[in-house]
Amino acid sequence: MPKKVATKISPVIGLQWGDEGKGKGVARIASTLSKSDLIVRFQGGNNAGHTIWHKSICYVFHLIPSGVFGKAKIHLGAGMVIDPWALKKESLVIPAGISFMSRLSVSPHAVLVLPSHQVLDSISEKTKGKNKIGSTGKGIGPAYESLPARTAVRVGDIGQKDFLVKYKKLRDMHGEILKRTYKYDIKKSDFKKLEHDFFEGIKFLSSLEMIKSSEIVESTLDRGNQVIAEGAQGSLLDVRFGHYPYVTSSHTVASGIGTGLGISPHLIGPSIGIMKAYVTKVGEGPFPTELGGKYSAVWCRDNKFQYEIDKYPHPSKDSSDDFEVGIALRRAGSEIGATTGRLRRTGWLDIPLLRQTIKINNAKELVMTKLDVLNGFSKIKVCTHYIVNGKRTDKVPFDLSKTEVKPVYVSFPVWKGKLAQHEGKLPKEAIAYVRFLEKTLGAKIVYVGTGPEDHQVVERYW
Ligand code: GDP
Ligand code: IMO
Ligand code: MG
């Protein structure tokens, strides 16, 4: 029999600073897949928060792939860091009647997030004061650091004779670091409870099928079935190519799939790039097109959503004050962190940054989410290039946080009324916006999002 030619993995990757709507995008693809197909996570951990709507109920998944409500197999890949208790808790949210345990598998190479990783993450962030990264505090950075330090405890260690020895060695090392460097006693952090939960999570993890990511991916492709790689975070948070140090600790871009699954790069196909119709960012770091600039950055760092509502009960969408427009955008888009509840900073699309992430991910198709959020604004702005040291450029400087960048914008008129009322058709102003973006970005927008629910999309028809 002739051997089937392997197809390629389809990456679904966030093109901005995360929260672009990857969860909804993956869930939508998942609804078309069969039980022989596969959806994998290849990096990140429960710092991710992927929102999906299923039968009019909203779920936020942090570790479990967003294809959980479909038929396809789902896999937690080698490049992930896994907090077992968080995984167990998440599994309890899935309604009875959705059989997912038999479809869910995990790589033995994935690194475990220990309770002491979490304590280290939050204590080290606290001591950074104004220099903090804005980490989600889930222990992701310290867990990833353990891998090159050769101290990591991995999923494949569970059940081995030396599992507890490895666990205790790393925990005690973290205890020492906390004591010496941060003058912090690990026992203060309700550590017994954290450890108890961790081992409950380990029991749950042990009940899953353990299989190497490369094996499950290659065998799926060899049969000619589809493999979707669900990215977490966004390309601008990539540990190397993001705006270091304001980044996460993994390779969020498509090339991370190679080492994140242990497969050859030739198996990575073109990406589907997910982008919002505007930009948001949660956490610290440079954001050239932020509405309200540095004032907004500090506001979002220091304030809570309720305080903002009290202070700005009705932010104006056509205010002459950019900061207020940014609040109106946050309110309209419910831009509150799905993992941490923090205010997401808001701003206009940034073409130089998008061109860079489209290129690095080989994104041939784009999905633009949250176009409906722009309903009622007086105009949409898009940054086409920057002025740096008095010169026009569309290149992104190496260190955005140390370089004064002045974004230059073009404006677009906004449609009247609500997009959702256009019954599957976009108004001409929205089409003009989409066409402009496709031309300037050099990639096709295959559909746009017109609301959070799974059916709220407008496919490309024009
Ligand atoms: P992810 O991390 O990339 O999966 O994105 P998040 O789930 O963190 O954030 C995206 C948010 O936007 C979620 O609350 C989604 O329900 C919501 N969302 C996704 N697509 C759309 C859309 O087209 N319109 C609106 N209004 N909301 C959307
Ligand atoms: P999803 O998958 C948005 C940000 C944090 C912080 C930085 C480092 O939902 O798009 P970390 O905890 O990873 O050490 O934090 O990265 N961050 C995210 N921002 N969406 C995410 O995931 C994020 N995951 C991490 O806010 O600035
Ligand atoms: Mg998210």
Tally of separate helices:
13
| Percent helix range | 25-40%
The 3D shape can be described as globular
- Strand fraction band? 15-25%
Structural class category = alpha/beta
How large is the radius of gyration?
22 Å
Average residue-wise pLDDT: 94
Unreliable segments of 5+ consecutive residues: none
Our measurement of the CA-to-CA distance between the termini, rounded to an integer number of angstroms, reads 43 Å
Task: Give the neighbour order of strands across the main sheet.
Answer: 9-7-5-2-10-1-11-15-19-20
Number of strands: 20
* Cofactors, ions, other ligands: guanosine-5'-diphosphate, 6-O-phosphoryl inosine monophosphate, magnesium ion
Largest sheet: 10 strands, mixed
Topology:
Layout: E1 10-14, H1 22-30, E2 38-41, E3 50-54, E4 57-61, E5 73-76, E6 81-82, H2 84-93, E7 104-106, E8 111-112, H3 115-128, H4 140-146, H5 163-182, H6 191-206, E9 209-210, H7 213-222, E10 227-230, H8 256-261, E11 271-276, E12 279-281, H9 293-302, H10 305-311, H11 322-332, E13 345-347, E14 349-350, H12 351-360, E15 363-369, E16 379-388, E17 391-393, E18 405-413, H13 428-441, E19 444-449, E20 457-459
Parallel strand pairs: 1-10, 1-11, 2-5, 2-10, 5-7, 6-8, 7-9, 11-15, 14-16, 15-19
Antiparallel strand pairs: 3-4, 12-13, 16-17, 16-18, 19-20
Helix pairs in contact: 2-6, 3-4, 3-5
Tell me what the structure shows.
By secondary structure, this protein is of the alpha/beta class. 31% of the residues lie in helices and 19% in strands. It has a ten-stranded mixed sheet with strand order 9-7-5-2-10-1-11-15-19-20, with helices on both faces. Strands 14, 16, 17 and 18 form a four-stranded mixed sheet that branches. Strands 3-4 form a two-stranded antiparallel sheet. α2 (84-93) crosses α6 (191-206), α3 crosses α4 (140-146) and α3 (115-128) packs parallel to α5. It is globular. The model has no long low-confidence stretch (mean pLDDT 94). Magnesium ion binds at residues 18-19, 48-50, 338.
